[in-house]
Write a structure and sequence with these properties.
The protein has an eight-stranded mixed β-sheet, sandwiched between helices. It is of the alpha/beta class and 302 residues long. Helix 1 links the parallel strand 1 and strand 2. 51% of the residues lie in helices and 13% in strands.
Length: 302
């Protein structure tokens, strides 16, 4: 099957290469010409513009977007839609807010096009392990995309599914990422406790390796944690600054709207935000307050 792929960052390029290996005809475009050259070297065809990309595909066409959520998606769509025809499919495989995907699906529908939102998980390992894909959209275009989805998934019948109407794919992926926040936080806190018990002299990577087999907390995230600990046990050179790309806070906002308690996800998000306070103002204020009400000593900075 033919597919246009725009947004050839690391994940988009890896997805393109996986599809080419599976025998699909992929045309790649990116604002960065070197990214296009990279996928061409992997066997894809390259385009110098969205106009050229759409012209190289036979109708009915399918174009997969792997661009950052928000304005970049809308900007890409505004250029792309006039170039497509009735029955063509636009796929958003990025981490868009599901409400935006519902709006974009309606806009595409008004122009005679199909819009499919695909929440995609797998990161840099997807090229070999396959991608987990949560698909939202109408039945017909999703079924038409089946060969592409089966090639990208870990197996044709595993790791992907049509979960519901437009927006549902990105909604499920949003919650997936919220859960990821909580899992990552729990692993990080647990290993911090292990490290603090100095008198046992624990090898944290060894503990992680033990837990990877037979343990009820084994997971791919644990494997990645163990790998990180093996490479850099003391996390030397790693700043205590944890960013977030939006999905965790969207999950918390949605949970509040739905009156669903999500304390673990909420606290893990707050922990990430707290890691960015370089001057730790709130902690300084807490110390000053202890001095105010109890006369407790205030530790001075060197």
């Amino acid at each position: 099957m033919q597919l246009g792929m725009t947004g050839l960052g690391r994940m988009g390029a890896n997805m393109t290469e996986r599809l080419v290996r599976a025998g699909h005809d992929v045309v790649g475009y990116d604002l960065d010409a070197t990214s296009v050259q990279r996928v061409v070297a992997a066997g894809a065809r390259g385009a110098a513009s969205l106009e050229e990309l759409t012209a190289m595909l036979e109708a009915p066409r399918a174009v997969w977007l792997m661009v950052p959520h928000g304005p970049p998606v809308d900007a890409t769509l505004s250029t792309l839609l006039p170039l497509l025809g009735a029955g063509d499919i636009v796929i958003d495989g990025g981490n868009s807010l599901y409400k935006d995907s519902i709006r974009r699906a309606e806009h595409c529908r008004e122009n005679g096009l199909h819009f499919v939102d695909v929440g995609t998980s797998g990161g840099i390992w997807g090229i070999t392990e396959g991608y987990s894909m949560m698909v939202g959209g109408d039945d017909e275009p999703v079924e038409r995309l089946r060969p592409i989805l089966e090639a990208l998934a870990p197996a044709p019948d595993k790791g992907w599914g049509h979960v519901g109407p437009s927006g549902s794919g990105h909604f499920v992926k949003m919650v997936h990422n919220g859960i990821e926040y909580g899992l990552m936080q729990a692993y990080a806190e647990g290993f911090a406790v292990l490290r603090a018990k100095k008198d046992f002299g624990l090898d944290l990577a060894q503990v992680g390796e033990i837990w990877e087999y037979g343990s009820v907390i084994r997971s791919w995230l644990l494997e990645l944690t163990t790998s990180a600990l093996s490479e850099n046990p003391e996390m030397e050179g790693v700043a205590p600054y944890v960013s977030d790309s939006g999905e965790g806070r969207w999950t918390v906002f949605e949970a509040i709207d739905l009156n669903v308690p999500t304390p673990v996800i909420g606290l893990s998000l707050l922990s990430r935000i707290g890691s960015r306070d370089e001057v730790a103002y709130s902690d300084r204020l807490l110390s000053a307050l202890r001095h105010q009400f109890g006369g407790h000593a205030v530790k001075q900075e060197p």
